[in-house]
Amino acid sequence: MEDKPAVDLYLDLMKKVLTNNLFAREPDIENESELKFVQGFIKHYINGPAISMMPMARFDNLRSCIENVIADGVPGSLIETGVWRGGGTIFMRAILRAHGVTDRTVWVADSFEGLPTPDADKFPIEAEAHGKEVMRKTYNHFAVGIEEVQRNFAAFELLDDQVRFLKGWFKDTLPAAPTGPLAVMRLDGDYYQSTVDALSNLYERLSVGGYAIIDDYGEDIWTYCRRATDEFRQQHGIEEPMIRVDPMCYYWRRAR
């Protein structure tokens, strides 16, 4: 068996625990049919002990982005907008801890009340999805209270002064959020307006060499996230290529 460095052992274990992949196996987003994937998604993440619903590939991407900005000295903190049970931001904090980084903050931004209700006239497919029984009863609009997320951080001994919480709708919390420069921004607000609110308030803070990760960019059945991202990139002359993580998640690295 290959001897792994302690950092790799720790972070590999963290991502397996956070995603419920220590003894179970996540649904296959690359190869399973949509129906089989959704059924597996509900069983594995929603009804299971997972603290994140991100596939393992997205954890690998997140680690790579953070370790790159650390190695390259890209200034700024880390933020995720839309955190569910907190798994992605817990992993962010774990990476900083593993590398002994003490001068960056992890910002945990969420309503902690679930997804906002979309405007049915402007965003009909989002409104339709929002009102469906599976979204209301099975997913509970992805509502997880701030106390539960903080408890999850504490369970891994990662709730400290390098973790800051932004509770409320993005349109209210992000404009004045005292984040300072950002090195990695991971957007998982699901809907068009949440994506726009995050990009319009945070992208100007993203350092050159930093990363913008859009969790739902590849989705088009129930959200306009891709449209929101494409419109923002076009309006601001962003030409850096979108890089695929998996069928739904894409990212780019800011070059200028």
Overview in brief:
The protein is an alpha/beta fold and 256 residues long.
Question: What this model shows, in words?
Answer:
Helix 1 runs antiparallel to helix 4, helix 3 runs parallel beside helix 4 and helix 9 runs parallel beside helix 10. This protein starts with 5 loop residues before the first helix and ends with a strand. It is an alpha/beta fold and 256 residues long. It has helices at residues 6-18, 34-46, 56-72, 87-98, 124-131, 133-138, 146-155, 170-173, 192-202, 225-235, and strands at residues 77-81, 106-110, 163-167, 182-187, 206-214, 243-244, 250-253. Strand 4, helix 9 and strand 5 (206-214) form a beta-alpha-beta unit.
Question: How are the SSEs ordered, and which strands pair?
Answer:
Blueprint: H1 6-18, H2 34-46, H3 56-72, E1 77-81, H4 87-98, E2 106-110, H5 124-131, H6 133-138, H7 146-155, E3 163-167, H8 170-173, E4 182-187, H9 192-202, E5 206-214, H10 225-235, E6 243-244, E7 250-253
Parallel strand pairs: 1-2, 1-4, 2-3, 4-5
Antiparallel strand pairs: 5-7, 6-7
